[in-house]
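Lecture notes, unit on protein representations.

Consider one protein chain, 142 amino acids long.
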Amino acid sequence: MIVFDLRCGCGHVFEAWFASSGAYEEQRGRSLVSCPMCSDTAVEKAVMSPNIGTKGNSRTLGPPAEVKAALNAIAAAQRKVLEGSRWVGGSFAEHARAMHVGDKTHETIHGQATVAEAKALVDEGVAIIPLPLPVVPPEQAN
């Protein structure tokens, strides 16, 4: 496992763990890496200090068990919230706005929106909730 300091387009800096540098690049290329504070997917590696261990065999690999447990709990809660919700992909803002103005029947949906689209929806009074973890589109789930 490798940890990167990442920075979104809004300037938030956060850590994320990946299996390898290649895994980070692949996930970022598919817009699966997003800021946990604003959901922006315009994410780049931030400047970080080198991590120099004292001995190669004295460090444990991967995040602490508490972090893994917390992320698993968040992911489980998110899965429960999304039960019965319909994936609308990148047209989330259009669907949400159409339901808000009465052009479409209300239903529970989830999808992707840019930070600008999400801010516009909030400004228009559309009730939305950003999800704490990236949602993988159904066609990309393994």
